[in-house]
Structure formats: C-alpha cells, structure tokens
Amino acid sequence: MTANPQHPANPYTSADRPGTAEDRHIAWLLAEWRRRSTAAGWPRYAPWLTAGAEAAVAAFFRPGRIRGACEQLARDRADADIPLLAALSDLDLLFLTAVGRGASDSVVSGYAAARHARIPVVEGYDPVSELPTEALLRRHLMRRGAAEPAGRPVVVAVEPQIGAYPAHERLRLTLLVAQHVMEIFGTPAHLLDDGRLAVAADRTDALPALVHLAALAPYDPIVAATGHASVPTLRPSFVHIEQDWADGGAGGRRGGLRVA
Q1: Separation of alpha carbons 181 and 166, rounded Å
Q2: 86 pairs with which residues across the strands?
Q3: What are the beta bridge partners of residue 156?
Q4: Would you say which domain of life the source belongs to (predicted)?
Q5: Which residues 6+ apart lie within 8 Å of 38 measured at CB?
Q6: What is the pTM of this model?
C-alpha cells in the first residue's frame, strides 16, 4: 500500500480523527482521491462521495472485496449518469493514488454492465465506448450525399497512437482523443471498424488547419492532476482524409470509407 498518512498534503491528522491504523489509511486515501478527482475536473452536477466510493477505498485493505466494491461504484456512477470517460478517469486516479497505476479490466466491465443494464445502448452505437459506429457514419454520409450532391463531406480519419496498455487505459485514451476531435470539428466522432476514429467534415478553407489540430495530443486531466510519470501519455495521432465519399462500388469501398 503506497498511501502514506504522514504525507505533507494529508488532510487527516490523528488529533482530530481517532481510530485504527486502517481507519487512518482509509481516511487519507478517500480524501486524497477526492482531492485529485476534483482537480481533474469531476462533473460539478454529480455527487462524488457515495457508498460505492467508500467501499472501493476500503476494499484495498480487505482482500477479496475489490471486485464487488468496484461493481457497487459502477452502479453509483451509472445511476448518476456519469460519462464513461469521467468514470474511467476517476478510477485511474484511485488506483494511481493507492497502488501506482491501473485498474483491472473487470472494473471497466463492471461499469459498462451496470450502465448498460440501466441505459440500453442505442442501435448504431458501440456498447463499450458508447461512440457512434462506422455503420452510423455511412448512413449519415449517404443522407448527406443524397441531400447535397454538390457538397458532399470528406471523412477525416484519426488513428490515436496508444501504447500496449491494458484495455481500460486504451479505452480512456481513445475517448480522450474522441472528445478532442469532436471539439475541433463540432461533429460526432465515430468509431470505425478498424479501431480508428472518424468525422464527416465539410470542404472548407479551414479544413487543413482543423486536420492539423486533430493530430495534436489532447489535454489529459489526470496528468495535470497527478503529474504521475506512470500515467500513459498520448502521442500525436495519425490523421488523414479518406477517399471522398461516393456511392459504393469497386475497389473495396463502401459508402466512401476505405475498408481495405
């Protein structure tokens, strides 16, 4: 256990919070996790301290209970409609604070299961990332092409450069890139079948500048909140414009997306 109740920034002192050594460690870890979560931009509308949060911290000191505690925390976050990216980031902060880095993939599975049991995923959206899929993008392109034959959009594909990290960390970083791309283009980022992200963009003079911005690594609130060297860092993405949208046909293209 790396949580240190004697840390200079520790909000706990034995003078005003009596209890066992375990109680003191739990109090410190809960307070430090909350501090970092707030610094990282926890949604103001959502309650942070729940029974699940307390159980998740206590589980570090009670072997065999971490999975159940994370499932309880997942239900709490799902009931509060916490976005997946925020929930994953908050879990990463907990594990960074307590034991270095990394939640288990079962944490992500528990969160996704709890959230989707309450809010079934709409057709056309990926059940894990909750991003719109390539199929939904194709339908959008076809509608745009039929309605605006002279002004068909182009598809800007973004390939996040993510290392060989556990699945939950790759998912969080992918969602960071998706949020980054959506803010730049002002349109939904779709998850392509090959794992890249893509947006439908209008042909304007500003397109090259937007493509350049999309390639930049996005701001990561966890790095800003912890400065922890072991937090996975995002490198600049590979970005390029796919072949212009056209009716499906030869050459391995469907609806204009390159699928080779």
Answers
A1: 23
A2: none
A3: 199, 241
A4: Bacteria
A5: 48
A6: 0.77
Name the residue ranges covered by the structural domains of the chain: 21-118, 134-258
Summarised one tens digit per residue, pLDDT across range 44-95 is 888 999 999 999 898 888 767 777 888 888 889 888 888 888 888 888 888 8
Return the residue matching tokens 């392109």. Answer: 141
Amino acid letter, residue 88: L
- Alpha-helix residue ranges (DSSP H) falling in the chain: 21-39, 51-58, 66-79, 84-99, 105-118, 134-147, 167-185, 207-214, 221-226
Residue with tokens 């794992």: 195
* Cα dihedral: 124, 127, 185, 90 (round 10): 160
Distance CA 122, CA 107 (A): 22
Task: Return the structure tokens found at 195.
Answer: 């794992």
Cα→Cα distances 122→17, 126, 157, 227, Å:
47, 9, 23, 37
Phi, psi of 193 (to 5 degrees): -60, -25
Helices 105-118 and 84-99: angle between axes, nearest 10 degrees:
150
Asked if the model's pLDDT at residue 181 lies above 80, the reply is yes
- H/E element holding 248? none
User: What residues pair up with 199 in beta bridges, in sequence order?
Assistant: 156
Q: How far apart are CA 137 and CA 153, in angstroms?
A: 11
CA-based nearest residue to 7, from 107, 243, 75, 24: 24
d(CA 12, CA 29): 10
